[in-house]
Structure formats: structure tokens, C-alpha cells
Amino acid sequence: MVGEEGAFVLGWDEVLTEEELSVTLKVLSMSEEEFKEYKEQDGWEDDSEGEDNSTLSNEALSRLKTPCKQLLYDSVLLTLESYGSDLKAEQDLLNNKEAYEKLSRREQRALHVRYGQKRILHQLLELVH
């Protein structure tokens, strides 16, 4: 369902892999009976059940149903736990000029990437909490 990488792509303003995330949330929040029906039909033939098919913007994420919000919240927490340090540690290193300059250029770029990823994940936690 989520493709070969098994990950969703989040941006500052919206989910960039919105179709994959939307389908995954629907399937994971189905009852056993709904899932059996879904499998028998090979998915949804016509997914226009009156649902909003617009992008999964930050505003749309904050309006998701509670089960979907909980799935996202738990997933984000698991993802954050997989990092070796927390957001504050990354921010402290970025703010410590002496320690930052001791890092290689590659380590500095990696730090910026990790920090950006964690900020997006923390933003998502706030949206779905």
C-alpha cells in the first residue's frame, strides 16, 4: 500500500504522498468486516463516497477522524523514536557555533536534514493531537 519504501512524504504544508496515506489510513481504520468487503472488491471501484478528495493539507490533517489521527500520531512517535537524538539536541547543536564548526560539511548537512525532518514530524504531532 505504501510503495516499495514503506514511507510517506510530508512537506511543511501538506502530505506529498496523499493518495498512499489516505488509502492506508482508510484500510487501517476499517473493521474486520469492512476490510473483508474491501478485499473482495479489490479496493474501491468508485471512491467518491462524498469524501473530500482535495490534498491532505495541514488543515485537512487536523480535521481527520479520531482513529486516523491516532494512527498518524502513533506512527510519528515511532518514527521520532527511531532517531538517535531528539529535536532539542539537534537545535542545541545548531545553536552551538563551536560544536557545529567541528562537524564535517557532510555532518552539518545531515544535521540540517534531521532537524528539518524532526520539525515537520513535531508539526504533524500538533496537527493530529
Automatic annotation (TrEMBL):
Keywords associated with the record: Methyltransferase, Nucleus, S-adenosyl-L-methionine, Transferase
GO-annotated molecular function: methyltransferase activity
Compositional bias (Acidic residues): 43-52
Region called Disordered, residue ranges: 38-59
Domain Rubisco LSMT substrate-binding: 4-121
Annotated Pfam families: Rubis-subs-bind
Primary residence: nucleus
GO cellular component terms given for this protein: nucleus
GO BP annotation list: methylation
Subcellular location: Nucleus
Protein's name according to its UniProt entry: N-lysine methyltransferase SETD6
